[in-house]
Amino acid sequence: MKDLAQLALDEAVAAGAGYADARAVLEEGESLSVQDDRVEGVERSATRGVGVRVLVDGSWGFAGTARLDREQILAASRRAVAIAKASATAQRRAVRLAPVQIATGSYTTPHGTDPFDVGIDDKLELLLAAAAAAHGEPKLSLAKASFDAWRTTKWFVSSEGADLQQTLLQLAGGVECIAVGDGEVQVRSYPNSFRGYCATGGWEDILALDLVAKAQQHAEQAVALLDAPDLPPQTGTLVLDANQVALQIHESVGHPLELDRILGYETAYAGTSWVGIGDVGSLRYGSDHVNLTVDTTTDKGLGTYGWDDEGVPAGRHPLVVDGVLRDFLTSRETAPYVDDQTRSNGTMRADSWGTIPLIRMTNINLEPGSGSLEQLLDEAGDGVYMSTNKSWSIDDKRLNFQFGCEVAYDIRGGKLGKLYRNPTYTGRTPVFWGSCDGVAGPQHWQVYGTPNCGKGEPVQVARVSHGAAPARFRDVQMGVR
Amino acid sequence: MTPQATEALLGRDGFSRLADAALDADLGGAVAGVEVLLQREAGGLTRFANSQIHQNVWREDLSANVRVVTDDGRVGVASVHTDDPAVVASTARQAAGIARLSPPDPTFPGLAPMAKAGDVEVDEATLTSTPQHRAEAVRTLLAEVDERYEAAGTYRTQADEIGVFNTEGQRSYAPRSSAALTLVVTGGSSSGWAEDGGRSRSDIDPAAAGRRAVEKVRAGEDPIDVEAGQWTVVLEPPAVGTLAAYLAYMAFGGRDYLENRSYAAGRLGEQVADARVSLTDDPRSPHAGGYPVDYEGTPTTRVELLAGGELRSVVHDRNTAKQAGTESTGNALPAPNTYGPMALYPMLAPGDGGSTADLVAGCERGLLITRFHYTNVLHQKETTATGMTRDGTFLIEDGKVTRAVRNLRFTQSLMAALAQVEAVGSETAFAGEGFEYGCRQPALRIAGFAFTGTTSFG
After folding, report:
1. Shared domain check, B183 and B64
2. In chain A, where does the domain assigned CATH 3.30.2290.10 lie?
3. Domain spanning A2-227, CATH class
4. B458 pLDDT exceeds 80?
5. Which residues in chain A have Cβ-Cβ distances shorter than 8 Å to B80?
6. Model's pTM, two decimal places?
7. Beta strands A197-200 and A104-108: pairing type?
8. Does the residue B198 lie in any domain?
9. Are strands B303-307 and B279-281 parallel, antiparallel or unpaired?
């Protein structure tokens, strides 16, 4: 496959590209789903192709093809150059790329057992056992269990001399317990909603979830939710489980700090940002408890790799320090807009051989605070605790958000009390993060995968992660219906 | 078709060669059936922002999805992206291997029988669009945007093909063309939206779209706050498209219906919406962007979901149809499908309410909504969703648009909204938000639409 990338690169340069890079990508996938005692789907997939990206006179062109004979690849390179020339007819400012240290080398996701080396029958046995365990709760209506794996091998070469090979292993697994009542459907997911645990790593990480042992407890919660009251409207203290903090980071920190978005590149689709390029160093994003990083080295993170899809090496960079904005997510094209000395912090990823790299979230983490979850609840006074995302929505500047969770409890005297269903909360980004007065310590900090992040046109779906611990917020509007 | 248009497609013969490689492959053991779903997508998308082209891409992809069923009812699926018949044959063997590792599926309904699917309208000029043509269209619309404003959006042209071939004798093949334009024009305190699209690039008028978006951004300047609460709204077609798509997802899938998870469960035949409201799923309509066949080989059909406000039916694939004791409506997604069937082209029928301006004229006090943003489900069974307004939200007073207002968040049962429809527009326009390529929708006037929050920009 590397030869195909090199062929595409050489032809693009010969056709007139001032800069070019080419990626050859092979992505293998496996997806297993069961419902109750029945296998719903077993699929293996493979997609391979070559994408070539070129700059001609400061304008971009890109072409990708899954037809891998020599003529088709040469045609794709020539097409990319022709597209770049067409782009130049509606150009205001020529693209300038920040410098990068030219890299050669390889990277493989650290793992024990490659999930593709485990038999499909063994995996189905685990999923069916988990679904059966959920039905230990006799009132449960439906039990679903799923497993997904992706093994992506990519070769990257550039006209600047980069020559990289990476193999990334990502996987997901979990259980969904569904209780259906009169006019009401309630779901509890383990260990998280939207395909469960999602991370880089090996099969051992799925076994460590202990899906079978956890399934019935979540089934019982789903059934109990059918008879629980809706969370009443109120404004007060909210403690979020780490899995919901993760999605809060995703929507109200990750997206608004993408520099391409701030520069207007995503205006027509996902929108822009409430943050301006001049806000670095002065904008108060949150309280002193709020420290956020972009870290492409996070253990188990779905955005962990050796280099991004522009050949920029992985690293850890602060975004918000003690509540103050310090940086954005950047690329080689956008970094010079901050200042001439700024280099990319390595967040460019394409979701396949057939798409261009975009600034993506990689791993955006809320750094842990101190103390235990029990202390966080103790100091809450009266309040509400919510866990596990069910719904999300935010405006096109990433200011006004509304989330729904699977489950909520009263906090009374530092203890979790009465159960509520259909909990929601809403707020505005800087006000909400500004009201954060506690983040639990490292013992509660985990990395949560978000496997369905959409961005760009044509839409690209990225698998990204967020490290988070439970956190407490004051004066939050809850129970919006 | 012209030679040029033919070259833009792989064609029935090319699809047959790939499919036959799987259908004729030696899969070992006892095989009851093989299905090959082939999809080719070839197209260019020119993306512009800050009034210049900033991303400009072309991609050609060809995928084969092979489903193998063994004699004892075990099912396996493998997929690959290739144009090599030998690789497709090898993928069929992989699917057979997966099937043998899986337990029997007693619910499997069998493969689709042979049935003539017919064609949908294909536009040759769209199939053969070039980057130069797309760039010209972008320059044309940018010429309508004066320097006070910035334009961002996309211009896409697409040549797609589908083929579903199986051992029951089904050998359906169909090409389709599509084109779409989206545009946001932004100013200091406002933004304006316009979109166009259809099966042909001639459905798009870039200059007119540019003028519409500029008109919106101008009218949107200096927005004021209004209170959240219940408002009469006039929804323009892009906003109606969002409403229809989310209703299709929440209420009209056969699987959720059978599992009692859908709004429709137990309500077939009930009057659930205003009598002015009729909703159909019609993928092969000239006003939609679908294929004449679904992803398991059943011809697509026109399905009445709501007729005169009455909940008439849900959509089915072969699996849910078997469980419901009925026939597939041609709404299958590619196997293996854990979501169930989907109405991919839900369209509200136009009414007798006149133009959008007429709907506004009939409103004493309300809000004119151009489009919604980031809508999501809060309660499927109640069809409750939340989302934001975007790119043009205006106050209506005494039948006239008087001011721009800052964006609001709605939290509303969408089916309840259809029960409160006051008028349905007589004209339709393209609305791209949906599951595939979008379709045409009328405008609606709805009473008592619930807004639960505000924001600080227009």
Report:
1. yes
2. 2-227
3. alpha beta
4. no
5. 45-47
6. 0.96
7. unpaired
8. yes
9. antiparallel
